[in-house]
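One record is set out below.
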Amino acid sequence: MSTTVLDKHPAADAAARPARTGRKVAWLLGSLALLAVLAVAGIAIGSRYIPPGQVLHVLLHREPASDDWIVVHHARIPRTLLAVAVGAALGLSGALMQAMTRNPLADPGLLGVNGGAAAAVACATALFDLRGFHAFVWFALAGAAAAAVVVHVLGSAGRAAATPVRLALAGTAVTAVLTAVVNGLVLLDPLTLNRFRYWQVGTLAGVDSAVLGQVLPFLAAGGVLALALARPLNALALGDDAGQALGANPVRTRVLAMVAVTLLCGAATAAVGPIAFVGLAVPHVARYVCGPDQRWVLLLSAVLAPVLLLASDIVGRLALHPAELQVGVVTAFAGAPLFIALVRGRRIANL
């Protein structure tokens, strides 16, 4: 019997399944180990270098009078934790967007969530004289939620259901309008531009632990909801009719997915500003490693995205040392070639 026939035999497929699962587990564990290494590096590297041994000493011993202790506990640990949380949120929301719309080029901004958050922050800055990250959080979340609702209403208008194509088109239109609003505000009010543009670039610098505490409940709720949607998204990948026959409710699944994307992307954008390419490129890497199973794609995206964000943050600290290049700029430089390599190296998987 030929090798091709053997490969298609059910027994051969069953024997290969544990090997494929082991490969996925190995990738997940390896990604977690790399994330831990980058987290330690993120605490050690900066305008003031702290050796890894001293980092460990500072973590294990309370010395509030020490300069190293102050830098580690009040600046770098909150920054590292925020990078992990925001990265996981962006990875999950990107994978969720691509699965929900069955569009491999979808990213968290496709439903207007990023645009809504940015427009709300720009309006609030102009009208209410906002100055700190703490004030941005609630306006950004409200703007993200409002934009998602408008997109869903437009995408489901008329007799037709809110299909992936209709949602994507509605999201593109809403994003274009919101971008015009933001550009108009910052051109009419230079003071707004000065305060808004630093946040708009996407930055982890200067964000303290209070902001992490504000957005963490939203990120946790969105993450749990996203992971819970993995099975119905797997069913809907076969089409709405086939997914419904398998027990998935297409309308409910998409509404819950939009809620999860709003929570994840809205809170992440509120904390650090819009960061490009993380939510777009990382899910493709996850699918390349583990295939189309959304359970693994979502899980691996939640680990690989913080790896990319932490690595970009470290590169930004070193690129212009002792000055700093903001992480949103670095992810654009790093994410674009990564995505182009994925597109050129292999055909993007149909979703």
Observations:
- Residues 83-345 form a domain with the ABC transporter involved in vitamin B12 uptake, BtuC fold (CATH 1.10.3470.10).
- The chain has one domain: 83-345.
- Residues 1-15 have pLDDT under 50 and may be disordered.
- The radius of gyration is 21 Å.
